[in-house]
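Fold it.
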Amino acid sequence: MRAYLRLIFPLTHIRLMMQLQNYDHIILLAHGSTDPAWKMPFEALQKRVEQKYGVGKTTLAFMELTEPDLATVLANFPSSVKKVGVLPLFLAAGRHLRHDVPKQIEALSTKSREIDLLAPIGDHDVLQNAMLDIIAEQLGM
């Protein structure tokens, strides 16, 4: 069986709402950690996304070390979810996004569900500009 996996790189100037128009569901993918407190900012982000865009359009998952993982999240989707975007909450595409996550997605893909790996949020101009603002603030500018 051939897996259905597309890597979507690079994406620029695309907001979550625009992506939701193209996907039945977006999975917000964070790395994961053995420290339970580590995931709290990501859970808070997921709640803010739900408040802004509605419940049931996005789900938080973790690549490793933290639950829920991609397999658990995808297993809980109804069959009506045919097209899924995985949005990495990573600053850059390193080994995990070039090798590990694509392998996970390939193993979880089916003929009836297309899963796209999107560019990490660090590739987006909006986030890069926010980082510039934070750096400027720390420099007292």
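DSSP finds five helices and five strands in the chain.
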